[in-house]
Amino acid sequence: MGEQKKISIVGVPMDLGQIRRGVDMGPSAMRYAGLIEGLKNQGFQVVDYGDITIHRSTNGTNQEQKLRNLQEVIKVSEQLCSELDEAIQKRGFPLVLGGDHSISIGSIAGIAKHYKNLGVIWYDAHADLNTAETSPSGNIHGMPLAINLGLGHKLLTNIGGYSPKVKPENIIIIGARSIDDGERRLIKEKGITVFTMHEIDRRGMTAVMEEAIDYLAKRTDGVHLSFDLDAIDPIYAPGVGTPVFGGVTYRESHLAMELLAESELITSAEFVEVNPILDDKNTTADVAIELVASLLGKQLL
Ligand SMILES: NC(=[NH2+])NCCC[C@H](N)C(=O)O
Ligand SMILES: [Mn+2]
Ligand SMILES: [Mn+2]
């Protein structure tokens, strides 16, 4: 990253993609933890677009059904899509703050149209590859990666007016340890690369990241990092709505971000699922902004 590179920040206080309240406060928690100041100290020009407005109707549509809050999620996704489109045209590095992981539908919709062959690193305990048919919960935050592949409800896959956004061979999932049956079938059928916790335990984070970086560097013209804080073990990042034990450590996650910084591969990023109500003294937001700093080139010496 050269000096005075521009970072464009967009907050998405979205909690409609799942049922636990509090994740809408994620963008505030990361700002409160010192995100903007930190990036400025790191030498970046920071343009903060503020938060997208979310209209939370008291009785959202599709409440107990297979796509909870569908209409609201569509509205927010379209808005995020056009904000990111604009940020990229103004040559900023898009940094999106969640909000639950359903925001990735809008962010990747806004980003992918600027690339011929966008790669995606999905750093997550989950695969988020469900559709309404396979979802055990009806929560849209468990579906965004499938939607970005063009699988799922038409109104979601068509955000931004085009579909699909990403090819299955350009996706790498890292840190997965909770995968539903339908997701497992899709991973096999589409040949999606997944470095589960097994591969990370067995080969180590360095080998996993090096392979991911080499692979994506050869075949993509931009890579979006979608970082779900629940990839990290809840010991280090307790403030998430769907925690799964046995996750990536704090150190391994920093290492992963440092290797990505060194590779200069990442062209946009989002940090999602930070839920300060479930957190312990804003620890998860603190961890998130430290990881942002590492991703954007901060070094210990
Ligand atoms: N972004 C997340 N935290 N996703 C969790 C998804 C959990 C589960 N697989 C579901 O579909 O409901
Ligand atoms: Mn997750
Ligand atoms: Mn996720």
From TrEMBL:
Protein residues bound to Mn(2+) 1: 101, 128, 228, 230
Residues at which Mn(2+) 2 binds: 124, 126
Q: In which pathway does it act?
A: Nitrogen metabolism; urea cycle; L-ornithine and urea from L-arginine: step 1/1
Sorted UniProt keywords: Arginine metabolism, Hydrolase, Manganese, Metal-binding
Which reaction is recorded as catalysed by this protein?
L-arginine + H2O = urea + L-ornithine
Q: How is the cofactor bound?
A: Binds 2 manganese ions per subunit.
Q: Which PANTHER family does this entry report, sorted A to Z?
A: ARGINASE
Entry protein name:
Arginase
